[in-house]
Amino acid sequence: MVARVARALVFYAALVGVWQALAVFGPWPSYLFPSPRSVLRSLWVDLQAGVLLEATAMSLRRLAVGYLMASGLGSVIGAATATWRWARDTVGSLVLGLQSLPSITWLPLAVLWFGLSERAIMFVTVMGSLFAISISIRSGVETVPPVLKRAALTLGARPWQLLLHVVLPAIIPSVMQGLKLGWSFAWRSLMAGELLVVSMSLGHLLNVGRDLNDVSRVAAVMLVIVAVGITVDRLLFGQAERVVRERWGLEEAAG
Amino acid sequence: MTETGQHWSRSRSVDPILAVERVRKEFRSPRGAVAALRDVTFTLAEGEFACIVGPSGCGKSTLLSIVAGLERPNGGRVLFAGRQVTGPGAERAMVFQEPALFPWLSVRGNVEFALKLRGMGRGERREQAERLLELVGLLRFQGLHPHELSGGMKQRAQLARALAVGSRLLLMDEPFGALDAQTREDLYEEVQRIWAAGTSVLLVTHDVREAVVLADRVLVMTPAPGSIKREVPVPLPRPRRPDGHEVVDVAAEVREALRSEPVTASVSGGRHGR
Q1: What is the structure's pLDDT at B261?
Q2: Across residues B84-105, what is the average pLDDT?
Q3: Coil, strand or helix: which one is A12?
Q4: Which helix (H) or strand (E) holds A135?
Q5: Fewer C-beta neighbours within 10 Å, C or N terminus of chain A?
Q6: Mean pLDDT of A152-176
Q7: What ipTM describes this predicted complex?
Q8: Residue A117 and residue A197 in contact, taking contact as beta carbons nearer than 8 Å
Q9: pLDDT tens-digit readout, A190-243
Q10: Scanning every residue of chain A, which has its alpha carbon at the shortest distance from the alpha carbon of B166?
Q11: Which residue from A54, A202, A188 is spatially nearest to A124, judged by alpha carbons?
Q12: How far apart are CA B115 and CA A246, in angstroms?
């Protein structure tokens, strides 16, 4: 564990070193290739002005709303397409098709329908994650081992008990996976949506940085986006997923 | 538990607990219907231990699924304690060859599963589960999850789980197929002990020796479409050892029955209408 942390530390220290060296000795002008120090300064300025916190809070709020909507709707679609053949043949095939659309391609449509508004951002966020979530849930329900259902039936389970005590617990690992995937899709779509719309948010800050030719600011905001992403990914989903996988016996406890 | 027998043998009562009558099953495939079972008929007496042996693909597992009520026959019927089987039920619990324990529950949780379905209280549930786990020698491992168990322990846990519902008929689908020889023999003793305590057992296997060690009667099936070709009684005292010479002799007889050309296979009467 210590060795792994040390290894990572050394790697990132070296990365910053190379970055600094490139900024100083590289052929690029500093207004195109910022040094680590100027990015840090930019980060600090925005942080002190309260801009960063406000923008992050705004983005996270939107993310929460959009993600919840997508999760709810996605679970319903996933469960329905896994359960009923008619739903699979209709909505199921549609979902598979739409899943192949990169989330940014929803943007023009969103702007046409909702203008440069909050609703346009929401729309892109939901559309970006909805299909990934419903596909994961569907495959989770479809891959519940039949022998578990058969066993429960011969133990006297009624259909609703089968659903509650066998299917639901059995799909928890894939639901976790789907929700994790959905979150990362939602986060990416949200950033795409926020680039367009003028409002205090992380995506908008990026755009402002570009407008002002402030490359350090652009890099600083990117760092914040990475930080938020890693925090949610690792701390929230990573932990939950690990617990579930261990409990369900999907992998040996990490040695 | 209606009767408590002596240790290794019990007198059979006359009423069949299970009657399988002219059961027929077909599967639809792209190339048309494939016959899996053809006019399977046999009975099982209350408290009897019967094993079904047959070549792989003869439909013996399908037959067991039909008795369990998990699949429906295309013709014929199954009577359990005089009533027609229309679906699965706890009076016919099943032990599977595949890992059928619920992976998210501990060993004890698995055994308590069916008791919980019936709304039994916590304390009572726990008490009963512990009693059964002790019976199969898993009491010390009750807190483990299925993936932490060896193959033999998994099958013991399945056995305890099936017993928890108080089944009158225990159905076992190649329950020892994935186990090594030593573990298997330990489980033979376990199963015989459980059977002696009052359950009827119908066990499907492709292992002739296993069938002879365990059964009162061995039902030999033909290749697909399967039907019962011969019944070989095993009038040997228990406990039986898999390498005891009487067991070997009867096993030879069963093997002979399996091998012989299906001259005797023309089951009584062909198909008159029903």
Answers
A1: 59
A2: 92
A3: helix
A4: helix A118-142
A5: C
A6: 92
A7: 0.84
A8: yes
A9: 998 898 887 889 999 998 998 998 999 999 999 999 999 989 888 888 888 888
A10: A155
A11: A188
A12: 26
Q: pLDDT band at B272, cuts 50/70/90?
A: very low
CB contact under 8 A, B88 and A165: no
Give the pairing type, strands B16-29 and B75-80.
antiparallel
Nearest neighbour of B88 by CB, restricted to A154, A172, A248: A154
Q: How far lies B34's CA from each of A68, A158, B20, B65, B224, in Å?
A: 49, 31, 21, 17, 9
- What is the rounded CA–CA span in Å between residue A16 and residue A36? 7
* Tokens found for residue B93: 């619990």
B228-233, strands of its sheet edge to edge: B94-95, B169-173, B200-205, B49-53, B217-221, B228-233
Bridge partners, residue B170, by sequence: B201
pLDDT value for B23: 94
Which amino acid, B54?
G
Q: For residues B15-27, give the mean pLDDT.
A: 91
Q: Return the pLDDT at A251.
A: 62
Q: How many CA atoms lie within 13 A of A184 on its CB side?
A: 15
The DSSP bridge pattern shows strands B200-205 and B169-173 to be: parallel
The arithmetic mean of pLDDT across residues A155-163, rounded, is: 91
Asked if residues A133 and A75 have their Cβ atoms less than 8 Å apart, the reply is: yes
Q: Do A148 and B102 touch (CB under 8 A)?
A: yes
Question: Peptide bond preceding B239: is omega within 30 degrees of 0, i.e. cis?
Answer: yes
CA distance B214 to A112: 75
- For residue B8, the SS3 value is coil
Task: Output the average pLDDT for chain A.
Answer: 90
pLDDT at B14: 59
Residue B262 has pLDDT above 70, yes or no: no
Chain B residues close to A147, C-beta within 8 Å: 96, 98-100
Residue B36 in contact with partner chain A when CB distance is under 8 A: no
Cβ pair A249:B147 closer than 8 A = yes
Both tokens assigned to B51? 């094993």
A223 CB neighbour count, 10 Å cutoff: 14
Neighbouring residues of A69: CB distance < 8 A, sequence distance ≥ 6: A122, A126
Would you call B148 an interface residue with chain A, using a CB distance cutoff of 8 Å? yes
Q: Beta strand pairing status for B49-53 and B75-80? A: unpaired
The answer to whether the beta carbons of residues A66 and A129 sit under 8 Å apart is yes
Distance from CA of B2 to the nearest CA of A (A): 20
DSSP strand pairing (B200-205 vs B49-53): parallel
Chain B residue numbers with beta carbons less than 8 Å from the beta carbon of A169 are 102, 104
* Phi and psi at residue A250, to the nearest 5°: -85, -20
B34: which strand partners?
A: B27
Please return the burial class of B251, using the count of CB atoms within 10 Å of its CB with bins 0-12, 13-18 and 19+.
buried
